[in-house]
Specification:
CATH architecture: Orthogonal Bundle
Shape: elongated
CATH superfamily: MetI-like
Strand content: under 5%
Number of helices: 12
CATH class: Mainly Alpha
Radius of gyration: 22 Å
Number of domains: 1
CATH topology: MetI-like fold
Oligomer: single chain
Structural class: mainly alpha
Length: 283
């Protein structure tokens, strides 16, 4: 019987996943290098060249205040990626322990945690984000907290479901029988074997966070001017769609490409971690 390929090889054989990884890595590299490669200051503009179409001087044109759109997209990528990473950190940092505690402990504690999670899930995430953002006010810090809080139920329920499966397996029963304390059983035996779906979910949540951040920015509840943020760029450019459509087109393309790359990565990781075996599917 042929041995199953390693995780890295399985990921490398998923062509669309590789494309998504390359695109995401390129976006991350450009975001990190933005202060070095951005041709202009993303905040300082020149009203004399406001709304200019793409040219050799400004490859993606300028916005309504004469600021270079390419420079603002590069710096805006830093905001989107930072918020996405921090959101996943907050959501997983709270949701994974809660899910592990709920699934392993069971009883009244499980019921209490699940009822609290259901109370949060009873409200549509986008509407709840808008409500909280409107009450608290626009702020990147609060945006991260809101997005992280709204993603906690996803991680909690996902981890709980996997804990309920894993804790019934033989090796977990063996660890209990030799006298391992519950904390050691969970952290050393149960949780590591229940985290594979969390990796897949994180890429999807990352994409959702980027979209929701852009939505909040578009409505004026995310990053505030003059901070370059893709959703805010869409909002400021919508008034000039007829005269300067590039002000909306390029931020929209940037959001679409980043979200698509994250979804492709999520699909590739899901296939590579599939316990039923990787079949070499690349599309």
């Amino acid at each position: 019987m042929r041995a199953r390929p390693s995780l890295v090889r399985r990921l490398a054989r998923h062509r669309l996943g590789v494309v998504g990884g390359v695109v995401f890595a390129t976006a991350a590299a450009l975001a990190l290098a933005a202060p070095l490669i951005a041709p202009y200051d993303p905040i300082i503009g020149n009203i004399g060249i406001a709304g200019r179409a793409p040219s050799s001087a400004h490859w993606l044109g300028t916005d309504e205040l004469g600021r270079d759109i390419l420079s603002r997209l590069l710096f805006g990528a830093r905001v989107s990626l930072s918020v996405g990473i921090l959101t996943i950190g907050v959501a997983a940092g709270i949701g994974v322990p809660l899910g592990a505690l709920s699934g392993y402990a069971g009883g009244w504690l499980d019921v209490l945690i699940q009822r609290a999670i259901e109370a949060v899930q009873a409200f549509p995430r986008i509407l709840l984000a808008l409500l909280i953002g409107a009450l608290i006010g626009p702020s990147i810090e609060w945006t991260v907290a809101i997005l992280g809080f709204l993603s906690v139920p996803v991680y909690t329920r996902l981890v709980r479901a996997n804990i309920l499966l894993v804790k019934q397996l033989t090796f977990v029963e063996a660890a209990r029988s030799v006298g391992c304390d519950p904390f050691r059983v969970v952290t050393r035996h149960v949780l590591p074997n229940a985290l594979s779906p969390v990796i897949v979910q994180s890429s999807l949540q990352f994409a959702f966070s980027v979209l929701l951040l852009a939505g909040l920015g578009f409505l004026g509840l995310g990053a505030q001017p003059p901070t370059p943020e893709w959703g805010a760029m869409l909002a400021s450019g919508r008034a000039y769609m007829r005269s300067s459509p590039h002000m909306v087109i390029f931020p929209g393309i940037a959001i679409s490409i980043l979200v698509l790359s994250l979804n492709l990565i999520g699909d590739a990781v899901r296939d590579a971690l599939d316990p039923r075996g990787f079949t070499g599917r690349e599309a």
